[in-house]
Every structure is written in structure tokens, then in C-alpha cells.
Amino acid sequence: GAIGLVGTSANAAGEELTPNTLEEITSYNNYYEFGTGKSDPANNAHQLETADWKITIDGMVDNPGEYALADLMDGLDIEERIYRFRCVEAWSMVVPWNGVELADILNKAGVQSDAKYVAFETVVQPDNMIGVRRGVLDFPYVEGLRLDEAMNPLTLMATGIYGEPIANQNGAPIRLVVPWKYGFKSIKSIVRMTLTDEEPDTSWNKTNAREYGFYSNVNPEVSHPRWSQASERVIGGGLFAARQDTLMFNGYEKDVASMYDGMDLSEKF
Amino acid sequence: MIDTINTTLRRIPAWTIYMVGAAWAAWLFYLGLTGGLGPEPINALEREYGALGLKLLIAGLAVTPLRKYAGINLLKFRRALGVTTFFYILAHFCVWALLDVGTFARVWQEIVKRPYVTVGMVSFVLMIPLAITSNNRSLRKLGGAAWRKLHKLTYLIAILGGVHYLWLVKGFQIEPIIYMIVILALLAARLKWNRRKSVMA
Question: Which CATH architecture has domain A2-260?
Fold first, then answer.
């Protein structure tokens, strides 16, 4: 069951993870469509329109089309996964997600054998999104995974946190969670997934390729050009909390390292 | 109108700036301790102190142009503004070094390896001689001309502070750009445009 899963694959480092409170998880966010401050998403994301959510799945799939969220989730088991969440800005929290494996959704769409990547896209609602109107990034926000990363059992499509529907500021109604990569890879409020044979564009890479690579695996040995990634501030620890050391692949090395065998991770960062 | 402002300003003692500055810094620290700055108070406090330091620096730079162009006299507050700026940047540095980064080795590594930290650090270090000589005794000892020359370092400090802020944000953010424009505008307001005219004449 869900508990067993939490104790095994989801918690690769083998120690008990204590989740952050829902209050912490919903009040400290990066969601640049709603502003660049950490509390901006909590203040502004109520404007996000999530009714009748549809996701387009296209590209190299057998069953392309526009799916209602409910149809996409139909028949899939929603599990709880307690994952570490490590932001590229060197802070971290622990989130008890509820969701389904991305692989299960992709299998419904029928991935064709020549597909190598999945491209993702976040909704754009300029009237509701102050960050979009200000042009903080080149919107829509886009992200991508290699197909083996997308199919990895750790890769989740989350629809809830703490058993409740995911809050708008956390990426309602459905978002990606890739726990061994920096948080910005875990794209929010997804409206499109495209199977392709070319490495897709990713938003932060387009903005600053020197600082943000396509892979963006959590790696304490590869610094961000402007700050160290060797340690992280833990959300919720208070003013006098010490930093903790960042773990290779955010603690999920055992489950994911083999996908990158032979790759120079300082070059493919 | 201007006279009323100046009369009112004359009634406010300069030490008000120190009192309000210290009280506000303490209040922010208290908010950080008690959750008022959100679930990650270290970075939040660091940014609050840094941004306030930059605002005070800008306020100090605004004194001369305000007098020159608007006739508003804030001269008697300038020293307090400068010292309070230093106080906030010192607090900003302390939160960063002691609460955020944590160890001396890591602090040194960040200063040496991260250009935006280096720039901020240079700006802070340049403030130290100004803070030390901010008293009347130093002014007398150095003599007015030398003292004024030394305190022109403020211009460089302001530019470096603005660059530090511009450099640390992600994506296209308008706030640091506005700060930089204001700093450059206040410095430009000091240029003596008429010098060229007189040469030409």
C-alpha cells in the first residue's frame, strides 16, 4: 500500500522524512506566473481558473487528444508519496504528495517507440496572472524530461497534498513532481504534454542557459554559477536552523543514478 | 509649502532616524523569530535588511539633489541616514554570514567564488571607513576637504550595492532595475553640466 511505498522507493535514503506543515507548503512557493516573491503565489493564485481542466496529449502517441482531467485519472490509483523537494535556490522542504505515476498516464496515451522526450506546458491566463502580464519569463512556462526519466516510478503527477486537492499556488489541479531534480523541473498546472524525439525547450534554460541546464539533477558537487548547491536551508526550521547537506540526486541516487551512467553531470547539468 | 516642510523638518531631531531605524530592525528580527516573515525567515530577514539598507543609501544620496532642485533641506539628517545605512548592511551581512551560510570557511568561499557576493562585500567593506569617520572628531582631524573626498566613496558604494541586487535575482524582475535607475539618476543629478558651457564660453 501507500505506506509501504513511502518506506521504500519514495524514501530512498532510508530515514524517516517528516513532512512540512500544509501551512508551510502553501505559503512559500515559486510560481512566477503569480509574482516572484515567495508569498506572491499564496496571495495571487486564487485567481487561477481550474474548472473543467483539460490536458492535451499530442506528438508521438497512439491516442492524441484533449483529455478531461477526470478521464485521464480514471482507473488510476492515487498514492501518497512523501518526497524531499529541493529548490535550485538552495532551500528544501518535505511534501506528502498525492498523485499517480506519470508512466501510467503516458501509457494510457500510448507512447510510440520513436518518442524520446516528454515536453510539458503550464497554463497561461494573462488576466489572472500578474507575472505573465509583467513578462518575468517567456510564458508559457515549459519543461521537459527524457522518456526514461518520465517513466521512472518515482516520477509523479500530483493532484493533492496531505489528502486535499492541491492548492493553486502549488500547481493546481495537476503538476509534475520529479523529486531528484531541482524544483523548477516539476512544472505546475499542466495543460499540454507532447511526446517528441527532440530535446524540448525548458523555460529556465531559455532564460539563462549558463545557469540552468536541461537535466537540473540535484547535485551538491555542481554549483549554480551564483551560489553553492552543497547545502540547503530547511523550510520551517526557524531563524537559527543550521543548513543541511544536500544529497546527491536529492537522496534518490539509488533509484535514478543508473539513468545517467557515463554522463558527465558537470557538463550535462 | 517648501518653507513649511523645512520648518517642520527643523523641529525633528536627527536622532529620530537612529531610533526608528533600530526599532524597525529589531521588529523585523522579532517577526523572523515568531513566524511573521514566513516559513523561511533567514532569507526573508536577509532580504529585508538588505533592501532597507539600499533604500536608506538612496535616501542619503537624495539629500543634495532635493536641496538643489526642490529646496528641501534634509542636510542635518544625512549623517544619521548614512550611519543607519551602514547598520542595516551590517545586519544584512550578519544574517547572511551567521544564520544563512553558517561557517567561516563557507562564508569566505562564497565571497571569493560568487561575483554578486564579492560585489556586495566590496560595497560593505568600503562603508567601514565612512562609518568610522562619521563623527565630528574625525571630520576635524581629517579636515573638511579630505573628509568630503573620502565620503564620495558613497557613490561607488551605491553603484556596487545596486549591481549586487541586480545580479542576485532570477528572471526579469523590475525592482532591482528601478533601484539602479534611481541610484544612477541621483548620481547624475550631481554632475556639473554647466562646466562644459563655461569652457566653451
Answer: Alpha-Beta Complex (3.90)
